[in-house]
Amino acid sequence: MKIFFLAALLIPSLISAQSDSLTYKASSKESKSEKISGEKKNETYSITITVTNIRNHNGVIGFKFFDDSTPFPHDTGFRKAVIKKSEIVGDSFTVTYDGFISQYMGIALLDDENSNWKLDMGLFFPKEGHAFSDYYHTAFRKPVYQDFRFRLTGNKKVIMKIKYY
User: Fold this and answer.
1) What is the phi-psi region of residue 72: left when phi exceeds 0, alpha when psi lies from -120 to 50, beta otherwise?
2) How far apart are CA 148 and CA 64, in angstroms?
3) What's the whole-model pTM score?
4) 106-142, pLDDT tens digit by residue?
5) pLDDT of amino acid 80
6) Quick one: 24 and 52 in the same domain?
7) Which of 3, 137, 112, 109 lies closest to 57, judged by CA?
8) Residues 56 and 87 in one domain
9) Which regions in the chain score pLDDT beneath 70?
10) How far, rounded to the nearest angstrom, does the alpha carbon of residue 151 sit from its chain's CA centroid?
11) Looking at the structure, do residues 51 and 86 belong to the same domain, yes or no?
């Protein structure tokens, strides 16, 4: 009986607190995007990605798009896209994605050669290829979001050279 009474008191206050925080996040995100862009609120842009150095045609190429509210290595980012490598001719391709608002963001790529939707690791290094927006990772550390983050203020072209170990 006491547990039921406590739950009856706590649930409405938790719901109220969650809705207040969601309202705050939404309003702060809108003002942030207005400050960053200085553009019309509904204007969107495209990103044209050129991927190079593909070593084979097994599996898929997966893209994850990150922004400041879902920075790398967030599980899903704010948008995902997948391309079957069997549809790619040669060792490079170009693709364009539309509908992005002006914001800080970054793009990560996984050359998922066995289509298991994760980066397979060897003893120390990844077994599969990876790439980042306009950044070729050479350090002996994991990449961080700041390495490949950029500010989108118009249509953008990005080059992603896949690195294999």
Assistant:
1) beta
2) 12
3) 0.73
4) 999 999 999 998 889 988 888 999 999 999 988 778 8
5) 95
6) no
7) 112
8) yes
9) 1-41
10) 14
11) yes
